[in-house]
């Protein structure tokens, strides 16, 4: 069921789950069957946890080279998981917490990558 | 924020970047290293496999979290070093937990004792291949180490007056072999290793060591002959981690799994030995593989020597206590290699037990059941589960089974890894240490006495920590490392992950295990060993034709087993080639075609008037083996044994003599 919200600029945007950007949209939509102005469904608890984790990651990865692009890539890739697939999301969330503890540790210094061109294989 | 959205839309459409990838002038195996995120414009997702690499910096890294690894790790943390412990298993799952027997220490609780008698027993047990300075260090530190463990809370069995209970164990004597059986093995019923490991783990939690559990160490980061860290694979999320540090301690255990039947866990794959071999450094004395006399027939599970220490006896099909013939004084408590050979000879001569006459019996039902229940509860249960035998009524079927590797990474008595050249002698490899079964100090020489291994773990684990504390200070700046260090390891990982040959990992592994079991067993012959070397070489070449099935990177156990197989193969080729070259019988290595020990002097005859042979003509020397990982070719060199103790006045070195029990 699509939810249509009004942004503060008046443009209509499709609200997507687990979006990276914590956009502040004007919460409200017009229901077609009654004249009441409903508030938009808020983020679920799990969504809030994931967003909070993401924010903590961004903060922790600020001073160490190489982490921020990877953090964004990971969250972006996993944003396509269905909202109903709670087991998978919770598993990734727990793993993310362990990875965050490691990132916060003072001994972790940088993130690099070994990349191999696919054509060569 | 808008820019991020744009970027995400671009990536979502998977547009190939306009810039072509620069022409690769390196070989096709080369991987390109960059800090994540930079240079990304050149390479887009669709065109490359990417392995994220997290870099860590520590003062010291310990690889392996068994008895030796934990002791070294928290010893270093205690000394103020920022320590990381990288382990592929949870610490309490390391193979130390399976040790049953006990720890030798000359505490003197059962009768008067002296560590110099323990020193003599260990030197004799090693068939004079052990380095006497290391043995001196270990036996002198033994009482202190055991008291330290007791203070950590290890629940030793007690005597009536509350002192630590010490039982008789193989090869231990009083008054330099002339005073009868010594009781110096401190034990916790028959699960000493379990208590030891759990005590050390509990103690280690007091210190701030960083544990990296379920990280598989791939290789050492070597630069200019100096060890600068370790590269490891995180099994949980498939990321690569480089641990840079000035001091690396290897405590990865032995490689029992090269044989088809062994008492070792499936995880005993000799990873440390292989890492050192791939770094171009030698391994020492790998041909000396201990066959424990009493492994359960069929299952291979261990029945501790402590059974014989409590009064158990070995019998053949005629019901005879045959050890009286082979070792008139020590009988069943002779050294392990003597007992293993005796059992094998009895079976060969047709006096084996069972329908196929291929094993011996260990009888315990003549002992009081109450003693069995207090002192040997674990093996009572093991025998019931794996052999279906009630130890209070029937004997246990046993067979010599591969149990321990005396050889390993050569170190000096302080735990520093060494290489050897004839011109300069022993030379320390800076930044690299080893302890435990993975190391070869060499305290066990050609044969290990029972209950010396747990002692070896704690003493040399502590020694490594002390040596590092002496040489370095915490917080020292690290020397620079090449940005693409560890590239070959990741290339190898990538190759195995996408391997598409014809033979499965399990097939190659079973071939290797059967070859080793058939060609390098208790009794070895030149012809059979040579055949084994050729077969092993052929099996090594089939590694190029390997096939793996799991292409993922998260929890890829197929990949980890294949990496372990590579490590096992390096150990196996060195073992069988060293065994084929050593033309004498010494300790656990017994040759049917060369039945005698060949020392620089013939110690069976009076020494006066004999000419000392040069080192090239006798065999009382350590083997140093190196392998070229690409071809599997083994090169052997030799190194003299250290014959002087640390302090000649305090403890005189023992000159070689004929070894009989």
UniProtKB/TrEMBL annotation, chain A:
Which of UniProt's keywords are assigned here? Chaperone, Mitochondrion
Q: Which InterPro entries match?
A: Complex1_LYR_dom, Complex1_LYR_SDHAF1_LYRM8, SDHAF1
Highest taxon listed in the record's lineage = Eukaryota
Pfam families to which the protein is assigned, alphabetical:
Complex1_LYR (PF05347)
The alphabetized list of GO BP terms reads: mitochondrial respiratory chain complex II assembly
Its cellular-component GO annotations read: mitochondrial matrix
Residue ranges occupied by any Complex 1 LYR protein domain in the UniProt entry: 48-102
Q: Where is this protein found? A: Mitochondrion matrix
- Its main localization is mitochondrion
Q: Does the keyword Chaperone apply?
A: yes
Sequence similarity? Belongs to the complex I LYR family. SDHAF1 subfamily.
Q: What is this protein called?
A: Complex 1 LYR protein domain-containing protein
State the organism of origin. Answer: Oncorhynchus tshawytscha (Chinook salmon)
Q: Species lineage, top-down? A: Eukaryota, Metazoa, Chordata, Craniata, Vertebrata
From TrEMBL, chain B:
Could you tell me where this protein is found in the cell?
Answer: Mitochondrion inner membrane
Q: Does the keyword Mitochondrion apply?
A: yes
Report the GO terms under cellular component. Answer: mitochondrial inner membrane
Kindly identify the residues recorded as the active site. Answer: 336
Q: How does it sit in the membrane?
A: Peripheral membrane protein
Q: Where is the Fumarate reductase/succinate dehydrogenase flavoprotein-like C-terminal domain?
A: 510-661
Which residues are substrate-binding?
A: 292, 304, 403, 448
Q: Which domain of life is it from?
A: Eukaryota
Which biological pathway? Answer: Carbohydrate metabolism; tricarboxylic acid cycle; fumarate from succinate (eukaryal route): step 1/1
Annotated coiled-coil segments of the chain: none
PROSITE patterns with a match to the protein in the record: FRD_SDH_FAD_BINDING
Indicate where the modification Tele-8alpha-FAD histidine is found in the sequence.
95
Binding positions (FAD): 64-69, 87-102, 271, 437, 453-454
Family note: Belongs to the FAD-dependent oxidoreductase 2 family. FRD/SDH subfamily.
Q: What name goes with this protein?
A: Succinate dehydrogenase [ubiquinone] flavoprotein subunit, mitochondrial
